[in-house]
Amino acid sequence: MGLICESRHFFSEGVRLAADLYLPSDAPPPEGRPGVVMCHGYNGMKHLYLPDAAKRLVNAGYAVLCFDYKGWGESDGPVRRLDPHGRVADVQAALTILCAEPNINQSHIGLFGWSFGCSTAIWTASIDQRVKVVVGVVGVGDGERWLESVWPADKWQQLMQDSREDRLQRARTGKSSFVDRGRILFLDAASQAKSQAARKAGGVNRDEIPLEFVDETIIFKAEWVVAKVSPRPLLLISCSNDQVAPPYEMQALYDAALEPKKLIILEGKDHYDVYSGPAFDSVMAETLLWLSSTFKLT
């Protein structure tokens, strides 16, 4: 199937966001196309990881909207904040724009979230009934539990001290200190190498993020609201060897969720495997099966 990619922009909380709308080139069905909004992880840029997944969905007949969160990529806003609740607002605005496109079936709208975007997708679905199905991949249920678990105890205490100092600085000056991404997001050597390679290939040449990422991570707990996704279907996909977002995070989300739900664990795979190769193929195959079953597509 052919593919069309068109640039879009829209506003979230008064801030202009940049987006790409992916569409099949053939004529839409009479009832309109099903649609999916993609939710990125820590790095909120539409050109990193998302296009390959969007193309798979388009090949199956979906309209797909990818966008840069506020302050990331081509979007306006405070530079490179996490702002998890602001990202939920961004996704809701993206839903509005996608549903306003011609030939979209507004009763067939889903969210797909990678990594921290899994939490974003779940939180959005919990408060927005326009979302009819959610797919979350290698995500996080409780930001505080997750962040503490991946750091050695002494380095975690230092991170908490740095965060407290930055919190006071923000209150006094309105500004957070920018630090290397590795000061906040702990990556094992293999994951770090894969992440750097993907970011370099995607043209990402800045690794600094504000220290307020720490506070903004630990306050975001999708586990609190995941039960509210029901009765809409929830698919969670984890990797057994994930050292970045360990599989117990997805298990905790699954345990807190209500039916209908499904948890798939990709054995022998790690966090960055899901963005390419066989693990990516498995993620997209399961995603398409889940979506088509939800929407009863033939």
Write the layout of secondary structure elements.
Layout: E1 3-12, E2 15-24, E3 33-39, H1 50-59, E4 63-67, H2 84-100, E5 104-114, H3 116-127, E6 133-137, H4 143-149, H5 153-173, E7 178-180, H6 189-201, E8 208-210, H7 213-218, E9 234-239, H8 247-256, E10 261-266, H9 277-295
Parallel strand pairs: 3-4, 3-5, 5-6, 6-9, 9-10
Antiparallel strand pairs: 1-2, 2-4, 7-8
Helix pairs in contact: 2-3
Task: Explain how this protein is built.
The chain is an alpha/beta fold. It has a single domain, classed as Alpha/Beta hydrolase fold, catalytic domain (Rossmann fold, 3-Layer(aba) Sandwich). 39% of the residues lie in helices and 22% in strands. The chain has nine helices and ten strands. The strands form two sheets. Strands 1-2-4-3-5-6-9-10 form an eight-stranded mixed sheet, with helices on both faces. It has a two-stranded antiparallel sheet with strand order 7-8. Helix 2 packs across helix 3. It is globular, with a radius of gyration of 18 Å. The two termini are 16 Å apart. 44% of the residues are buried. The model has no long low-confidence stretch (mean pLDDT 94).
In short:
The chain contains nine helices and ten strands. The chain is an alpha/beta fold.
Q: Which percent band covers the strand fraction? A: 15-25%
Count of structural domains? 1
Distance between the termini: 16 Å
Note poorly predicted spans.
none
Offer a few descriptive terms.
298 residues; alpha/beta; Rossmann fold; 8-stranded mixed sheet; two-stranded antiparallel ribbon; 9 helices
